[in-house]
Structures
1.
Amino acid sequence: MPLAARAPTAVSAIEEPQIEEPQIEEPRADSPASDTVATLPADSAQAPRQEPGSKPQRQPRYHVVLWNDNEHTFQYVIAMLKQLFGHPAQQGWKLASAVDRQGRVVVLTTTKEHAELKRDQIHAFGADRLIARSQGSMRASIEPET
């Protein structure tokens, strides 16, 4: 029968999902009754539950440290910090000045995985085109927050 010729049907009630009940294995005659085990179907995996009122455990934090050298200009540092970290030019200038004065500066504090990513992005940023002797990117490292 063509689709247009079908009579409209009544809207049926929304079906609720069916949840399988745990299956309880009956104790064998040769085992004590305390060996009864409830098993859940494989597709019913649940996330671990958190106790009410407890806080989730916080991941350890790591600093991304930028190290000073004489092969990169302030303009390079400011542009890199803006592109990789989203720091505005004024913040980039402050960080570039700090790394120049102190030899190192923390540019971000985050999770270990994110810190490793940002360190690798600094290492891949490339040489400073304004300085002929610039051989490559600036040095960066990560260290645990204390």
Note: The radius of gyration is 30 Å.
2.
Amino acid sequence: MYRFVGFSAMFHAALAWPEYLLWKTYLHVPNADETGFHDVFTSGSPIDRWMALVPVLYVGLPVLLGFLAARSVRRGGWLGRILVGRNPAPRAWDDLFWRGPALVVRLKLKDGEWIGGLFGDDSYASGYHEPQDLLLEEAYEIADDGTFAQGANPEDFVSLGSSILISWSEVQFLEAFDFTEQN
């Protein structure tokens, strides 16, 4: 929220001079007899055609700049580093699950039980400010010692055929591996 307010203030500061010129030219026009002011829109005076673009630019320019900034952040570009700093994610949790590639996750719960599975496209990790919950799209069988059970092919995990929802408050620790390393 603070970033949004900060960027909004920066856009208004950067656009203050053009906004003032538009206001002075079209909304605060001195009367011919210099006894007061009128605006071009209600007086019936001709308006330049490019003025129709002002509302579009007023909304569209910040949206476009925000899109480009977000893309730069996702790709690790120099603009992204300037705008959000070295780490755009506020917590390690957000950084781990924000990256995008599929992960194999193994968790040890506080009661000593091991659980694990695939964090892929259909998985979900809650983001900052929300409580840390993790939905793994595919749960894998794990032995009591924390090792993944192997399928017929030693590179395959044994799927339990279900998803699993985990609350971080129940987790002692978590290990995450790129899916390609495990498969």
Note: The two ends are 39 Å apart (CA to CA).
